[in-house]
Write the structure tokens for this entry.
Amino acid sequence: MLIDIFERKKRRWKNLRDVRKKNSEKNKLMISARMRISMVCDNGEFKEIDVNLKSNNPINFPDYDEKRKELKDKYFLKDAFVSAVGKIDGRKVVIGSFDTRFLMGSMGTVVGEKIARLAIMAQKEKLPLIIFSASGGARMQEGLFSLMQMAKTTAAINGFKKKGGLFISVLTHPTTGGVSASFASLGDIIIAEPNALICFAGPRVIKQTIGQDLPKGFQRSEFLLEHGMIDLIVKREDMKDTLSNILKLHDVKRKMA
């Protein structure tokens, strides 16, 4: 009888460890915008900007106001993007990150405005711009207004780059839809996290459309690196050092120019 009790407890602890392991793997992919920024900034410190920007309901989408209020109260976010200024190994940067907890990081009018303002600020102060993308794409609850953000953010980023600004685009899991099809693909240097899904339409949609099996790892960061779509794959724990090295090289280039 004691052996039976011991075996039951052993199985119970094994199941508990399996659950914890799965949760750990899942949480490794999901991280808040503020945590992501703090992980690369010196001492985890940064100054958040444009904190009071908030969207309305431009097409009167049902329950949209209620959903946004619920997410704001739960995660202390007014929308799906956090803008900030910080330092990476002493070098001042303009930095922003999507937060997938807010409507899957979808890009609506506020997100588009924040990204455009970041680009304008970086251009005005001649600072590098770093954006961490993690998004399901354009926000359907804002209809055409959300699609307009693709053009708006692209124009703002291109304007910044034409003035000689450095834009580092970091693609995390997932970067899809209108975000991947606009500013996120315009980085002077494009970095991705391992095994991140990066695409416009997902693999299932493409497979159903063309009626063919897709290559193994299709639309994952490793596949994109192999085919020249991104420059680097960097683990989260190595991200700060990688960004710091890129910023050092950029400083050398500017001094030589």
